[in-house]
Write a structure and sequence with these properties.
Layout lengths: L2 H20 L10 E3 L13 E6 L3 E3 L4 E3 L4 E13 L2 E16 L2 E15 L8 E16 L2 E7 L5 E12 L5 E11 L1 E5 L5 E2 L4 E8 L5 H17 L24
Antiparallel strand pairs: 1-11, 2-5, 2-14, 3-4, 4-6, 5-6, 6-7, 7-8, 8-9, 8-10, 9-12, 10-11, 11-14, 12-13
């Protein structure tokens, strides 16, 4: 790959990324959601669908698979909330979608399954800041003809926090709420029933209102990552990525 073609590829990616940003939150904003519903998990977002958006990539070297960011955990349905002393246990079904990098090939994926989250000290309390722990997650699906399963890493706790703020009466009468929320999610991956392989690190996921536009933006951003990695590896033929080459940025919440 020549210096000129490398430059062109990177300029294209920068322009495409700026175009997505200027389109008016066509993907997601990481400043929480606004909603008339103060319950957790976040739901009924105004201006989009409530989702947790990954802020960094994760790789599973045993399988040669990488999940480049952004990817999205959303469609929280069949929500059941059970008080457990001063805490609440929320059980719900969900979807994880994005574009995986498998040996340099971009493969869209969509996995579904149940999640359990405990919110501490929020029974009978609507607003405030609450510590949370994701205690269970089992997401499965078929991807490119292979069965895929992602679960929580049992050796590392997936912790988070949510802050719920009353914004006062909204245009429809009831109060509006802002919910900012994050989790540091540690996972394992299994393909075709094989042994679970731990991820390269935690994924910082933040709550945002997500515009579900068919993942075109996510695919484009992933393609830009591929072009950038290919440019960084001259002489590698088709520019195949090696899982784990991304350096995860500091989780967003650590900068607040």
């Amino acid at each position: 790959m020549t210096t000129r073609s490398i430059t062109r590829a990177l300029v294209f990616c920068m322009a495409a990324t700026l175009a997505l940003a200027s389109a008016g939150s066509h993907q997601a904003k990481a400043d929480g959601i606004t909603t008339y519903n103060p319950n957790l998990p976040p739901q009924d977002a105004i201006g989009g669908e409530a989702a947790y958006v990954a802020q960094n990539s994760v790789s599973y070297s045993q399988y040669g698979v990488e999940l480049p960011f952004p990817f999205y955990h959303f469609q929280f349905i069949n929500i059941q909330v059970t008080p457990v002393g001063p805490n609440e246990l929320a059980s719900f079904d969900s979807t994880l979608s994005g574009v995986a990098n498998v040996g340099g090939t971009l493969v869209p994926y969509s996995l579904t399954g149940p999640v359990d989250v405990t919110t501490f000290g929020n029974v009978g309390i609507t607003t405030g800041t609450f510590a949370e722990q994701m205690t269970s997650m089992d997401l499965t699906g078929m991807v490119a003809g292979h069965s895929v399963e992602i679960v929580l890493d049992p050796t590392q706790a997936t912790m988070g926090s949510s802050m719920i703020t009353d914004l006062g009466a909204g245009p429809l009468g009831p109060d509006l709420y802002n919910i900012t929320s994050f989790f540091d999610v540690f996972t394992e991956l299994s393909i075709d029933g094989g042994a679970f392989a731990p991820g390269s690190g935690g994924v910082a996921a933040v709550a945002a209102a997500f515009m579900d536009d068919g993942r075109g933006g996510a695919l484009l951003l992933s393609a830009c990552v591929s072009s950038h990695q290919a440019a960084a590896q001259p002489g590698k033929g088709g520019g195949a990525l090696r899982p784990g080459r991304f350096r995860s940025p500091r989780p967003l919440h650590s900068q607040r």
